[in-house]
Design a protein that fits this description.
This protein is about 15% helix and about 25% strand. The protein is of the alpha+beta class. The chain has a single domain, classed as Methylpurine-DNA glycosylase (MPG) (3-methyladenine DNA Glycosylase, Chain A). A hairpin with an 8-residue loop joins strand 4 and strand 5.
Amino acid sequence: MQLDAAFFDRSVHEVAPELIGATLLVDGVGGAIVEVEAYDPDDPASHGYGGRTPRNASMFGPPGRAYVYRSYGIHWCLNLVCAAEGVAEAVLVRALEPTQGLERMRARRGVDDERLLCAGPGRLCQALGVGSAHDGLPLDRPPFELVAARGERPAVLAAPRIGITRAAHQPWRYVAAGSRFLSRAVPRAVREAQAPPPPLLAGPAGRPGRRAPRRRSGG
């Protein structure tokens, strides 16, 4: 199912975790989203926190559009605009698992390791060929294609955002649990805090069972 403006016309905190597992393509190049971050208008780390400017105008909508900006004058970053028009909310796409157009990605990035093609917002935009020309474009029309995850969606972990100094404690980074394609691993303490409890082992007749030991997981 194509994700259209109606999908994004909600709080960024609802949309962001639901994007994990969705397929994002630009001119047929891309893959499954495995890492995003949410930014809302009350967030001091958000570009929209200080109000609308010519640089951040696309972040104010309408929903279902791309907001593309240059970070530190070097790397392009792709955001997916959420909420009602006039409200500055967006999801930063931090990492993909590459699935389509890998040779074009390798040529653009100059690396062969598929884990390094789209692990980080700057790498991702370079691999997909995203730049200023994509700012403000609708996400449900070419060159973009954004399709909901098919089948069982991956488990999602929430973690503090990275690469920022303000409101860095907020757990608004969402990742596909166990993915090898993240921009940075999720801290073990965060993984273990959100892991489901181990199964209850059967005890002797008439006695309660005990929990199996937890297994350490990656991601």
